[in-house]
Specification:
The strands form 2 sheets. A 3-stranded antiparallel β-sheet has the order 1-2-3, with no helix packed on it. By secondary structure, it is of the alpha+beta class. It contains 10 helices and 5 strands. The chain has helices spanning 41-48, 57-85, 98-107, 115-127, 134-138, 148-163, 167-177, 190-204, 214-225, 271-281, and strands at 2-8, 12-20, 27-36, 245-250, 256-261. It has 2 domains: 2-48, no CATH class; 60-225, no CATH class. Strand 2 and strand 3 (27-36) form a beta hairpin.
C-alpha cells in the first residue's frame, strides 16, 4: 500500500511517498521533496492573519504612482507650452515665494494682475488641483458614510462655501495668521479649485478680453482639470458556470479550438446573487 504524506506550511509544502508492506510491516521511502512558495515574510504574516490582499498589490501601487507622475508631468508641460504661446508665461516667477503666490491668488479674485502672474496662478492650479471622487460631488450631504479623510475634505469645502471665499483666499488668510501653516496637508475637492478658476478668469477677463477668449479658456481648463474616465472592466467578467457551454471555433491559423461561452456572471450586488447565496447557506 502506498501512502502520500503532506506537510502544509505557510511558505512551503513538504511531501513524501512511502510504501508499506502489509505482510511484514516494513516501510520503504519511495520519494520525497519540498516545494517552496516564493512569498515574503510580510506577505506570509498577512496571509496568516487572514488578509487576502494580492501579493502584487505593492507592485501595482508603484505602477500607479509612476503613471500618475508621468501624467502630471505631461499636463504641466502642455500647460506651459499653451501659456507661452499666449504670452502668459514668465520663467522668473516659477520660484516665487510661497506666501507671495497665495497673495496673488487672493488678489486675482478682486483686482487686475499681470498676464505673467495669471499664468503662474494657472500653473499653480495645475500642480494642486484637488481631490476628485464622484460620490463627494454627487452627495455632499452624506458625510457620515465617508472615511475621516474624505469627511475632512468635505468639511473644509463647507467652510469656504459658508464664507464665500476661494481656496486661494482661504490659504492666504491662514498663512497670514501663521507663516508655518501646512498647506500641503489641507486637501480640498476638485470642485473647489474649478470654482476658483472660474472666478479668477471671470475677473481677469474684464482686463484681458482679447487674450482670454472662450476657446483659450476652455483649452486651459481642459488641460488643468481633465481626468480620464475609468476603463471598463466588463471584459474581465467570467462566464456563468450554470448557463455556459463549450463551442468549437476556428482559430486564426485554421485550427479548431474549444471556447467556453455564455452569459456573464451576475454582480454580487444583484438580488439574484443574494438569493443564490441564501440557498447555498441554507
Amino acid at each position: 500500500m502506498k501512502i502520500l504524506g503532506l506537510d502544509l506550511g505557510v511558505t512551503s509544502i513538504g511531501w513524501a511517498l512511502i510504501e508499506k508492506n502489509n505482510e511484514n510491516g516494513e516501510i520503504d521511502l519511495i520519494k520525497s521533496g519540498v516545494r517552496i512558495i516564493p512569498i515574503e515574510t510580510k506577505d506570509a504574516n498577512q496571509f496568516i492573519s487572514g488578509n487576502t490582499a494580492s501579493p502584487n498589490i505593492e507592485r501595482r501601487k508603484k505602477r500607479m504612482q509612476r503613471r500618475m507622475y508621468f501624467r502630471k508631468k505631461k499636463r504641466n508641460q502642455s500647460l506651459i507650452k499653451t501659456l507661452i504661446d499666449k504670452g502668459l508665461w514668465d520663467e522668473s516667477l516659477i520660484n516665487i515665494e510661497k506666501n507671495k503666490l497665495w497673495e496673488l491668488r487672493n488678489n486675482a479674485i478682486n483686482e487686475q494682475i499681470s498676464l505673467s502672474e495669471l499664468g503662474r496662478i494657472l500653473y499653480h492650479l495645475a500642480q494642486r488641483r484637488g481631490y476628485k471622487q464622484m460620490r463627494i460631488e454627487q452627495d455632499e450631504s452624506d458625510a457620515n458614510s465617508k472615511s475621516d479623510y474624505k469627511k475632512n475634505i468635505y468639511t473644509r469645502y463647507q467652510i469656504i462655501k459658508n464664507e464665500n471665499i476661494t481656496v486661494g483666499q482661504y490659504f492666504y488668510r491662514q498663512l497670514k495668521n501663521n507663516e508655518h501653516y501646512r498647506v500641503k496637508e489641507q486637501i480640498f475637492p476638485r470642485k473647489a479649485y474649478e470654482e476658483e478658476f472660474e472666478k479668477i478668469i471671470s475677473k481677469q477677463k474684464e482686463y484681458y478680453t482679447d487674450i482670454l477668449s472662450e476657446d483659450f479658456v476652455n483649452k486651459i481648463q481642459h488641460i488643468i482639470f481633465y481626468q480620464r474616465p475609468l476603463k471598463s472592466q466588463k471584459h474581465l467578467l467570467g462566464v456563468c458556470t450554470l448557463e455556459g457551454k463549450t463551442i468549437k471555433i476556428k482559430n486564426n491559423d485554421g485550427s479548431i479550438i474549444e471556447k467556453y461561452v455564455g452569459p456573464p456572471v451576475v454582480a454580487k450586488t444583484n438580488p439574484l446573487f443574494q438569493i443564490h447565496r441564501i440557498w447555498q447557506n441554507y
